[in-house]
Design brief:
- The complex is a heterodimer of chains A (370) and B (637).
- Chain A is mainly alpha-helical.
- Chain A has one domain (2-363).
- Chain A has helices at residues 2-9, 12-32, 46-66, 69-74, 76-93, 113-131, 139-157, 162-179, 183-195, 197-204, 207-217, 228-240, 251-254, 266-299, 303-327, 345-363, and strands at 95-97, 100-106, 109-112.
- Chain B is α+β, with helices and mostly antiparallel strands.
- Chain B contains 22 helices and 23 strands.
- In chain B, strand 21 and strand 22 form a beta hairpin.
- The longest helix of chain B is centred in the N-terminal third of the chain and has 29 residues, at 25-53.
- The chains are: A mainly alpha (370), B alpha+beta (637).
- Chains A and B meet through helix 8, helix 12, helix 14 and helix 15 of A and helix 1, helix 2 and helix 3 of B.
Chain lengths: 370, 637
């Protein structure tokens, strides 16, 4: 019975939009790798790997959707513990690149610890808040949920990975508000945080982040060093104009002026080669995806599902926003992949797993059918 | 407490009821949707700004991004003597440097150790220089660790550079002057372009790291020697690797200069002059072709090795050169002015003949001095001496014996005897006609114009009226008159060639790099001296007599009829023996009947007859009778 019901309620549109985003990303990855892989696409090409991960992701979506998401609620404590252990471990035994430690290597495959942790923490927070629905107004609940979110956020910040830490923060704010915490708690905390900014600038932020903030305001102070990516991404996107220079036709991309052009700066490839129109299409796809995610939250039969869906939507929203905002110089540089679009296995698999949670919520929604 | 919020059962009420129970939810979801629209809207706005509003600006920036203009240097022209002997070579100078900003984050020490092992400079000193470099010019300018490393070391370092980030070998073009100090004043030297020169020459596509001629023909003929550097426009990738050439303008190498100077004669002249300069601070000699104005030899002592400017030159070394008593960097032939002494009598003589103040047979008796009464007080009598009591002399004798009295008469006259002289105005006029008082226009920088005084000049400069005594002194090339040795030489060349005052030059022609003649330099006649041919002939005969029987006998050369005039000009303060130190001069031409060349020899401390004349004789002897004799036969006469 559950199979038929699942097939009927399964949100095909959600998965199709996600697949469209992966395909869109695949085009960009292909174009950006043209100079490094002139021989075309074969088994060793990053595009092949990306598509394999996408297929793997879809099957994970189906698997997670098939499992009752409430099982993850039972496992929440364990998942949270795993997330924290991973984030601690990566600081000591992780691989470092671009000045931060974020990755484990498992049999040749790099896994980004914070990608996995994000989803686990969402589940744990959802469970905690859902369980305390009746006491949600109590300050104690609010503070404990804050600590639950702050521990992984602080560990991620230590890598250092400012962007992902900010995603944790945004997810937490969204989830507690959705759970019914009085908004004034959040506002007071926010006020406190703002007043601590000068302190944070001096103590919490390392030289690495201060440098990035300085470069954000004046990338020309080091145009060939730290400011290079900022200037080149902006130049690439701006030079794309309304219609772009055409896929594989962007000199900024093809002559390697863009660095990490298939991950953090894949949006710059899009901006250059497909222009403003291409960017609007991308944002339209994300809007559709996120609205489908909100739909899942509205349909959820219980608070736990609703909070998970909210967390996933906010996670994706903030990643998209921060990634693109870095590319177009709205915020200081912080390395965050563009969900579904950027090249990267662990991100893709975890995103599809998150979709699985949403699908699970949708197919088990409240409407009783006979 | 709202107990209905407790989730005890997984299935409880109808969905509609559930939604109502979580009252906040619909509004919260609407807010969440609004947040998405708002955040994406912000992105769209910035994209509009970048791609639509500023799109063209960024398009341009992207184009510039991938294009580089690469200068293609042109090879600097070589310089040859008149027979094609090379005098300079192009070579390279290597320096080991470190670009502090490119050093690996924690690996500076290994780069220092590596470099230290190869160039033999202690690690501490390398660290010190890198620190100085960072303080002085920032992280991304190379800090020079050791200048002038040899070629093999440079090649080793170049091989290592890709594996040792921060290590750099700087290659600079350099000129190697093959004849050392022999041609320093003629050739000059090159040096890094200065900020002022760069500002003036930037339009001619000079680069800030270019070298440029600083003196000598390297300076005068900079544009011919330099040629025209090319450039190419290339497309590069982000690492600066060349992908394709979009356009290219090939460099045009500089022309070779063929000097009019003869290497062998130059060498001989330098050798002879060294021999006769004695205790002089400086000395100069030059040989000029009287028909073309080409200089065949040009020597100024003391000299310097212009190769020192091709290598690292410390401030101390430079100061030593500049402050050395003989001023070796100065070309004394053109840049310094001296009293011409009796050589100037030729000019006064020519003027006197032309103005009919004197004729060849005009006889004046020298009793060893003449006297002049003070205009206001007849009891005050000034004595103007001759160098000896020479007796009665005609014009030839006056020149040949270099009688001062004779020329006191010609220049200033002798009122009490009714002898009318030229007067200072006419003397000055003829001096200027023969090229005194203005640069000769030689193709070398730094020429002095010399000085031709007259009454107006004295009034203006010294504030005293011109006196008869001033005219007497003027008449024998003493007093205020001052000239460069080259001015004296060009004046006598005009006497020798029948009255054409030529601009002397040291470059004969331009050649391309294969030795084909491109262009010859022009013979430039500055002036036709306003003296009849007959009178110039009389002057030449008098100068010939000076060498045969007169005071310039030491300038005689077997087999060649030399004509000339000595000069022994007093200068400086009176010495303890009541005399003055003297400059020794000889200026002349040969052969007398068909003048080919003129010569000037100047010895700053010496005599005209004792030092300058025999020196000139040796140089002339070498020119006419020396090892070059065989080649002279082929010369069109």
């Amino acid at each position: 019975m559950i199979a038929g019901r699942a097939a009927r309620h399964f949100d095909y549109l959600l998965l199709i939009v996600a697949a469209a985003l992966v395909a869109y990303g695949a085009l960009l990855i292909y174009s950006a790798h043209l100079s490094t892989y002139p021989g075309g696409v074969d088994l060793g090409h990053p595009l092949t790997k990306q598509l394999i991960f996408a297929l793997l992701g879809v099957s994970i979506t189906l698997a997670v959707a098939w499992l009752d998401y409430r099982i993850f609620g039972q496992m929440a404590v364990g998942l949270y513990a795993v997330a924290v252990v991973m984030l601690v471990a990566v600081l000591f035994i992780g691989d470092s690149a671009y000045g931060s430690r974020r990755w484990f290597t498992f049999s040749g495959q790099q896994v980004q610890a914070s990608e996995v942790a994000k989803l686990f923490v969402i589940v744990a927070l959802a469970r905690y808040l859902a369980d305390r629905q009746t006491r949600i107004q109590e300050i104690q609940v609010f503070l404990i949920s804050l600590v639950l979110a702050a521990i992984p956020a602080a560990l991620v910040l230590a890598e250092p990975d400012m962007g992902t830490a900010m995603v944790f923060g945004a997810v937490w704010v969204g989830m507690v508000l959705m759970a019914g915490v009085p908004p004034r708690h959040v506002l007071v905390l926010f006020g406190l945080a703002v007043s601590l900014i000068p302190f944070a600038m001096l103590v919490v932020l390392g030289e690495y982040q201060r440098e990035r903030i300085r470069l954000f305001f004046d990338p020309n102070s080091d145009p060939l060093g730290g400011g290079f990516n900022i200037l080149q991404a902006e130049t690439s996107i701006g030079s794309g104009g309304i219609f772009g220079k055409g896929l594989t036709e962007g000199p900024q991309t093809q002559l390697d002026f863009l660095q990490t052009s298939t991950t953090d700066y894949i949006f710059a490839v899009l901006g250059e080669e497909l222009g403003f129109i291409g960017a609007v299409v991308l944002l339209a796809l994300f809007t559709a995806l996120l609205f489908r995610g909100i739909r899942a939250a509205t349909l959820s039969r219980d608070q736990f599902g609703r909070l998970i869906a909210t967390g996933v939507v906010i996670m994706i929203l903030f990643q998209v926003f921060i990634n693109i905002a870095v590319n177009i110089r709205l915020v200081p540089v912080t390395g965050i992949p563009l969900p579904f679009v950027s090249q990267g296995g662990s991100s893709l698999v975890m995103l599809f797993a998150a979709l699985g949670l949403l699908e699970g919520i949708v197919i088990r929604h409240r409407k009783i059918e006979f | 407490m709202r107990p209905f919020r407790e989730h005890k059962r997984w299935r409880s009420a109808k969905p509609k009821v559930e939604r109502d129970r979580t009252g906040r939810s619909p509004a919260a979801f609407a807010l969440l949707r609004a947040l998405i629209i708002l955040m994406f809207g912000a992105l769209i706005l910035q994209l509009l700004n970048l791609q639509v509003i500023k799109g063209d600006e960024f398009k341009e920036r992207a184009e510039i991004n991938a294009l580089r203009e690469v200068p293609l240097p042109s090879a600097r022209g070589l310089i040859l003597d008149r027979h094609g002997q090379p005098l300079v070579q192009n070579s390279a100078r290597f320096s080991a440097a470190i670009v502090p900003g490119d050093l690996p984050d924690r690996g500076e020490a290994s780069v220092y150790r590596l470099l230290s092992g190869i160039i033999d400079v202690p690690v501490q000193e390398i660290e010190q220089r890198v620190r100085e470099g960072v303080d002085g010019q920032g992280e991304f300018s190379p800090a020079v660790i050791k200048e002038d490393i040899d070629r093999d070391t440079a090649l080793v370092l170049m091989e290592l550079a890709p594996h040792a980030p921060g290590l750099q070998v700087i290659t600079e073009p350099s000129r190697r002057y093959l004849t050392g100090s022999l041609f320093s004043h003629v050739l000059g030297y090159t040096g890094p372009i200065s900020a002022e020169e760069y500002a003036a020459l930037e339009r001619q596509s000079y680069l800030f790291q270019d070298f440029i001629g600083k003196s000598g023909v390297e300076f005068t003929y900079e544009s011919a020697l330099r040629g025209r550097p090319g450039k190419k426009l290339i497309e590069v990738d982000a690492a600066g690797r060349e992908l394709k050439v979009i356009s290219e303008r090939r460099p045009i190498d500089g022309s070779n200069l063929v000097l009019s100077i003869d290497l062998d004669l130059q060498r001989k002249a330098a050798e002879v002059l060294n021999e006769y300069a004695g205790g002089s601070d400086n000395a100069a000699a030059a040989v000029m072709d009287v028909k073309t104005g080409e200089l065949l030899a040009m020597v100024s002592l003391p000299t310097f090795d212009n190769n020192v400017f091709s290598g690292p030159l410390s401030d101390g070394d430079l100061a030593a050169l500049v402050e050395s008593p003989g001023k070796p960097l100065v070309n004394h032939l053109i840049a310094e002015r001296y009293a011409p002494g009796s050589t100037f009598k030729t000019i006064v003589g020519a003027g006197a003949l032309q103005e009919e103040v004197a004729a060849p047979w005009t006889t004046i008796t020298s009793r060893g001095y003449i006297t002049v009464e003070n205009e206001f007080d007849p009891n005050v009598i000034y004595v103007y001496p001759d160098w000896a009591s020479l007796g009665a002399l005609d014009f030839y004798g006056g020149i040949a014996m270099s009688s001062n009295v004779y020329f006191y008469y010609l220049a200033g006259g002798k009122a009490d005897e009714g002898f009318r002289g030229l007067g200072e105005g006419k003397v000055a006029e003829y001096a200027r006609a023969f090229g005194f008082g203005e640069p000769t226009g030689i193709d070398l920088p730094g020429e002095s114009p010399g000085l031709v005084p007259d009454a107006a000049w004295k009034e203006q400069t010294i504030g005293e009226p011109w006196t008869l005594g001033d005219t007497y002194n003027f008449g024998i090339g003493q007093g205020y008159v001052a000239s460069t040795p080259l001015q004296v030489l060009t004046a006598i060349s005009a006497v020798a060639n029948g009255g054409e005052l030529l601009s002397p030059r040291v470059v004969k022609e331009f050649q391309d790099s294969h030795g084909n003649m491109l262009e010859a330099t022009d013979r430039t006649v500055r002036n036709h001296v306003p003296v009849d041919a007959e009178n110039l002939g009389t002057l030449r005969a008098a100068m010939r007599q000076s060498v045969t029987t007169g005071v310039a006998r030491a300038a005689a050369v077997p087999g060649v009829e030399v004509a000339g005039k000595t000069g022994t000009a007093e200068f400086g303060p009176r010495l303890s023996n009541g005399k003055y130190a003297t400059h020794g001069w000889f200026v002349g031409f040969a052969p007398y009947n068909d003048p080919q060349i003129a010569i000037v020899v100047f010895v700053q401390r010496g005599g005209g007859g004792a030092d300058a004349s025999p020196a000139a004789a040796k140089i002339l002897d070498f020119y006419f009778n020396g090892p070059r004799l065989a080649q002279q036969v082929d010369k069109p006469q």
